[in-house]
Amino acid sequence: VLAAENARRAAQTVAEYEQTRIEVYALLAKNDLAAAVARLEQAKADPKFEALRTAVERDLECAHFAADINAAVAAGAALLTDQRTFALKKLDGKTVYAGKRNVVTGVKDGVMSISQTAGGVAAILNLKLDDLMPQTRYELASLGMPPGPEKDLKLAFAGLLMLQRGAGEVTAQTVRERLAAARKANAPEEKC
Predict the structure, then answer these.
(1) More confident residue, 119 or 3
(2) Residue 171 per-residue DSSP state
């Protein structure tokens, strides 16, 4: 009877943590890193989740990937100052094409400045990186990260967040391919 009760409690604890995990990944999908990390820190401090400490710490590490991804989005956007052609798809359905006519002049505090010239008249467009479609942010992050297993792991995580959001541009197959590339590049197995 005692063993059965302990097993029931353990299963309940796992179920409670899974609910926490669902909440955390929903927050991350909305780009609310601070709330997600706070929720995981709360779970880490909760004695009932002590047996799941490794999972909680792994989830905390993954949550911090979101900050790295955001930094990579900004870094990728900054690379567009070389005037390469790039479609910046916005959440409102509009697309701004960066390149020779719409020159990215810089990125600061999550805002990309684009100098637009039309009919001999120049104007500055300030575009928030948070206003870009998830797929565009993913592509910019890919551009802004140095190559290696960490890049593949972080982009796999970004893909999972996109799947969580229901963004159909990244598939489960894409995530699996990123994880396979990370493994091939000798990323630690427990992270893949």
Answers:
(1) 3
(2) -
Query: 145: Cβ–Cβ under 8 A, 6 or more apart, which residues?
Result: 68, 72, 75, 76, 151, 154, 155
Question: What are the Cα distances from residue 61, in Å, to 4, 36, 64, 95, 184?
Answer: 33, 11, 5, 34, 21
CA distance 34 to 138: 20
The length of the chain in residues reads: 192
Q: What is the mean pLDDT of the chain?
A: 91
Among 155, 176, 134, CA closest to 68: 155
pTM of the model as a whole: 0.83
Six-digit token pair at 186?
A: 């000798």
| pLDDT recorded at residue 130 | 93
